[in-house]
């Protein structure tokens, strides 16, 4: 066998393995989408049918009738607020850690890493108590502030690594021209750190959009429930409502999937950019 034949065979084998892994990973999602398009009397048939025959949108129509748009709007508001607050505060903190050598800098970096290792459920009771004292339970503002607190460590760590790759000579030249530190951060560092900001933002929005445990513990009000909590409502009391449940899950997947597809090249460069110090 020639080297060309071996190379072709290797590519075919690698492609087949990659396709098999992707199929296994995507099969639950594809099955959920298929189930959401099946008529109610065809969902639990045996043997199971992968393709809906005929396809129907009755479950999506039921979502609109039950007001699924209100939890979607709440999730969008919470996610946008969390991303904005986390990136704004995290960028300033990460820049200070990356550029200033001050007493306590190393312990702060260790504290950031240690905070990321704390299990989220262990923070629910003190978080709820603190928000209750402030009167921010059952509110989107309180949930956004809590998400921001949870996501600040990973935001600071990602941006800290990325800021270190930016040459300090650019900032010193800007300050010679009369820029202040905040102007340097806003007009020089942040535009050059777009991939890192997007990578951190994708981590934040994925957590804020998909979180169920914190949202159901902090917000008991139906008016402020987010999409994951609304999806849980379709579990049913006497049995699973598989049609509306899979339809709601499909609706929740589409926005995050679209964001990742749109910004995937920035995400990869943002995650790898901080691995090499410039």
Description of the structure:
With 278 residues, this protein is an all-alpha fold. It has two domains: 3-56; 62-273, Orthogonal Bundle (MetI-like fold), CATH 1.10.3720. The chain contains twelve helices and no strands. Helix 1 (3-36) crosses helix 12, helix 2 (58-65) crosses helix 12 (242-273) and helix 6 (140-163) runs antiparallel to helix 9 (194-210). The mean pLDDT is 84.
Defining key terms:
single chain, 278 residues, mainly alpha, MetI-like fold, 12 helices, 73% helix
- Number of distinct beta strands: 0
- Overall mean pLDDT stands at 84
Fourth-tier CATH superfamily name of the largest domain:
MetI-like
| Name of the CATH architecture of the largest domain | Orthogonal Bundle
Rg, nearest Å: 23 Å
- Count of helices? 12
Order of helices and strands: HHHHHHHHHHHH
Q: Number of domains in the coordinates? A: 2
CATH class of the largest domain: Mainly Alpha
The general outline is globular
Helix content: over 70%
* Beta content: under 5%
How far apart the termini lie comes to 46 Å
The structure class reads mainly alpha
Could you name the ranges where pLDDT drops below 50 across 5 or more consecutive residues? none
Strand count, sense and barrel status of the largest sheet are: none
CATH topology of the largest domain: MetI-like fold
How is the secondary structure organized here?
Elements: H1 3-36, H2 58-65, H3 69-99, H4 105-116, H5 124-134, H6 140-163, H7 168-176, H8 181-192, H9 194-210, H10 213-218, H11 227-232, H12 242-273
Helix pairs in contact: 1-12, 2-12, 3-6, 3-9, 4-6, 6-9, 7-8, 9-12
